[in-house]
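Hi everyone, sorry if this is the wrong subforum. Our group has a chain we'd like a structural model of before ordering constructs, and none of us has done structure prediction before. Sequence below.
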Amino acid sequence: MRIAGIIPARWGSTRFPGKSLAMLGGKPVIRWVYERVSLAKMLDLVVVATDDPRISEAVQKFGGKFAMTRGDHPSGTDRIAEAAAGMDADIVINIQGDEPFIDPEVIDRLAGVMAGEQGWDLGTAAVPIDSEKELHDPSVVKVVWGQDHRAVFFSRSVIPFDRDHEYSDKGSVYWRHIGIYAYTKSFLGKMVATPQCLAEKVEKLEQLRALHLGARIKVIEAGSIGVGIDTPADLTRAELIAREKGWL
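Answer:
Right subforum, don't worry. Here is the predicted structure as tokens:
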């Protein structure tokens, strides 16, 4: 069973155009992501999927692999689906291109679940929420799961709702979804070929389309949310973290 790690990276970003090539400690962000992803032991292939020659040239320069994709994709999922279409891969892991410190162990755990357990269409990850600010922040997506850690629902709202205010330990009740996805290649194709469902349109969450299609989604527990580069301020924070860890 072959497993591909695909990193979608587009130039256009409302808050930080060209962030993939923003320099972090002397290396572009996309190189940090690529090198971290390449540390995962279960990946047979790592590819950057991009629509911009500036990004593909940067990837080629540091010796990475890339796939050119159309520029009109509405989401990273559509972009990786195009890149994966011609690949010899059974499982495709979508890894965000703005996560320079992505944990390779999380990638391997997801790959292990998809390759070693029967019946999952999709795998993803979550970390505990332990602050009121995060809990009520609509940009923080929450997830609830049932038996075998199978996802029940994702929402920008607070789920589950603590009706009687009995649970003071938030970290044991509330979980923040992390945007990493491991798909079977067949389900990825099915998902991008299906129009948005009502719940997805309302919440603006693609994973609700997967649930609408009846997907069995495995949620693993991760230790850290990581650092996403959405603004120049995030880049400054990431450099401080890299220095603290001794990576610079």
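For your construct planning: The radius of gyration is 18 Å. The longest strand covers residues 175-184.
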